[in-house]
Amino acid sequence: MMAALPILLAHTNMTWFLLPLAAGISLVYSASRYEQPERILRRSGRLFAQILLFMGVILALLALLSFRL
Hints:
The protein has 69 residues and is an all-alpha fold. The chain has one domain (17-65). Helix content is 75%, strand content 0%. The longest helix is centred in the last third of the chain and has 29 residues, at 37-65. The chain crosses the membrane at residues 46-67.
């Protein structure tokens, strides 16, 4: 069972790691700026959405620039 784990991880698309990375960054950044848990969660949710939107725009721009290469 443990031998199959590296094979499974080798076939995992690396873009899926961006979701927990963006969530962690937004939570740590928001927690360092605010003290109330409700405000931390609200601001980190908004920052998480902004990070994903920014990465989506960059992905679309790179896909457009690399079209028919």
